[in-house]
Amino acid sequence: MGTMFYGDAATPIGIEDRALAHLKVAIITKLRRGESFTVSWKHADDQPSGRSTLWLHPNIPLRFVFDEPEPTELSRAWVEELMRSANSTGGILLVPEQLDTGPIATVEPLATGPGAEEPAP
């Protein structure tokens, strides 16, 4: 479980390392542009029910702490989804990673040998 510290808030925000790594990229991209925005998330099962929203501003200190010593491999699709939400009026909505578990498309091998059709020029 990673941790995000924002401003002088005494309560750290616990976020799973992989999610925090993706969120970090989206947040840093926005802050580098000098843009202010919100980040919202649903509370974890071990916390009181509800949700939270932070207003992030480039002049407020922000720190990310990861439990895992090695950086995680990022999913371009998840970062892009977070960036789309960051650019909306609602700000970043931290959502679980959507893994594509559908069947993998296959390509039929080209026929070769006697009787195989030649590709059109």
Automatic annotation (TrEMBL):
Record-linked InterPro entries: DUF7882
Location of the DUF7882 domain: 1-97
Name the UniProt record assigns to this protein: DUF7882 domain-containing protein
